[in-house]
């Protein structure tokens, strides 16, 4: 069921859309009159597809794993890569497409050049501009050889006849005109490269910026959904309300203070003794990064550790630091009681946790993030680390959605965020209600 409740933010987005569409109309008219075509010159003479060999298919299978392609292109209970998964955006829902080799429903009628145009230029074979929910804004950095390997692998998977479902986007974002002008404003294909780099430094950047498309979640976006050029602030994921912390902020998601082995362990197992992957990041590890080769995991870790740091800590891209506020005595006492009743048996009386099982809460930056969404969602839905080859039987946390009220969760989290040396702002009932509604949908 759709949420049709009017809100100032939704009204503002609607007016922004109208203004954007008017701007689109003017710019697009000038653009087309100027002779700008939809596709690059290279598309006018598509290269012939060469028969794939086993090595190329194997490389494509690895890349598809690392890039987490199946996760977005597979609906719950559906055939692998057959599409149909709804992806929330601030402008409505995008439904992923069938990329199996069926000629009618999938990409069986494409060749390697057509696939390259989609990956590198964000254009479909029929001339449609693709929505950047398919992250070609990152995939444009993939080499031609890796694009061809991915295509070869996808042509080897079982074909599915699942037809493409229509998107559910609000006007004017549902128009190709608006999308083309968005591309003119915010997208420029990266310089094409033939093969992936081999040096560890360049390989790390290649994997993080391209195939791994890490910044698609971990970077703030502007009002029209374009990635922030600064990469600051992190991002609240539409629909789910999970907060993807900035990878360039020590108080959020930076790994600059982790050792190289700790960073590699997190990518390949989802845990390293300091942090535990949860929410969407657990899915990234489960379906993607646990399959990284040791050399690729090391290269990614080196690159992530070297990212420039931004200060001070910000909330979802805001430049205003959050000032910690101590909860009132009554709320603090209630929170302490709730913690003793529901949390202390696993996380310890003083938030010390249990090594190898339950994370410490004292001094844990995931606890003191200015944005409390991840904490709230973990308490509501439970905390479940990914079951990986390196950590096949992770410990989990039960959900409290039906056991604790919004007021209870606000009290216990406010207590945790101010106890044992933690110094973060308290959590309000409103802070709990918004993620609860998102998880209940």
In one word, what is the shape? Answer: globular
User: Runs with pLDDT <50, length 5+?
Assistant: 1-6, 26-39, 43-47, 313-323
Strand content: under 5%
Largest sheet: 3 strands, antiparallel
Provide the structure class: mainly alpha
Side by side, the strands of the main sheet go 1-2-3
Mean pLDDT: 86
What count of helical segments does DSSP give? 18
- Please provide the count of β strands: 7
Rounded to an integer in angstroms, the radius of gyration calculated over CA atoms is 23 Å
Counted up, domains total 3
- What is the percent of helical residues? 40-55%
Task: Give the CA-CA distance, first to last residue.
Answer: 8 Å
Along the chain, the helix and strand elements come as HHHEEHHHEHHHEEHHHHHHHEEHH
């Amino acid at each position: 069921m759709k949420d049709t409740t009017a809100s100032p933010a939704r009204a503002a987005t609607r007016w922004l859309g109208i203004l954007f569409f008017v701007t689109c109309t003017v710019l697009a008219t000038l653009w087309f009159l100027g002779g700008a075509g939809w596709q690059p010159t290279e598309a006018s003479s598509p290269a012939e597809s060469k028969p794939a060999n086993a090595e190329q298919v194997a490389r494509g299978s690895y890349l598809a794993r690392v890039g987490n392609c199946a996760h977005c292109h597979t609906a719950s209970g559906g055939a692998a890569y057959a599409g149909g998964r709804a992806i929330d955006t601030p402008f409505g829902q995008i439904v992923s497409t069938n990329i199996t080799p069926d000629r009618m429903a999938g990409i069986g009628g494409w060749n390697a050049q057509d696939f390259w145009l989609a990956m590198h230029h964000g254009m479909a074979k029929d001339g449609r501009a693709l929505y950047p929910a398919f992250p070609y804004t990152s995939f444009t950095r993939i080499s031609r050889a890796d694009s061809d390997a991915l295509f070869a692998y996808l042509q080897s998977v079982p074909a599915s006849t699942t037809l493409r479902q229509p998107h559910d986007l609000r006007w004017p974002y549902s128009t190709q005109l608006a999308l083309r002008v968005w591309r003119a404003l915010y997208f420029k294909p990266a310089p094409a490269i033939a093969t992936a780099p081999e040096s560890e430094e360049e390989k790390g950047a290649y994997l993080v910026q391209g195939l791994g498309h890490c910044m698609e979640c971990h970077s703030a976006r502007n009002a029209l959904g374009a990635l922030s050029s600064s990469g600051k602030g992190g991002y609240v994921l539409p629909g789910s309300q999970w907060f993807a912390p900035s990878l360039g902020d020590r108080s959020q998601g930076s790994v600059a203070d982790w050792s190289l082995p700790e960073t590699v362990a997190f990518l390949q197992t989802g845990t390293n003794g300091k942090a535990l992957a949860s929410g969407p990041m657990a899915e990234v590890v489960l379906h993607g990064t646990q399959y990284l080769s040791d050399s690729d995991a090391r290269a990614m870790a080196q690159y992530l550790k070297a990212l420039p740091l931004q200060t001070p800590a910000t909330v979802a891209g805001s430049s205003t630091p959050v000032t910690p506020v101590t909860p009132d005595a009554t709320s603090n006492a209630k929170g302490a009681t709730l913690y003793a009743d529901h949390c202390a048996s696993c996380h310890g009386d003083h938030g010390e946790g249990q090594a190898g099982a339950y994370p410490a809460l004292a001094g844990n930056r995931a606890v003191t993030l200015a944005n409390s969404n991840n904490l709230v969602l973990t308490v509501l839905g439970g905390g479940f680390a990914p079951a990986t080859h390196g950590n096949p039987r992770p410990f989990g946390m039960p959900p409290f959605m039906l056991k604790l009220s919004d007021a209870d969760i606000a009290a216990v989290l406010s207590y945790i965020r101010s106890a044992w040396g933690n110094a973060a702002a308290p959590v309000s009932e409103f802070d709990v209600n918004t993620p609860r509604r998102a998880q209940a949908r």
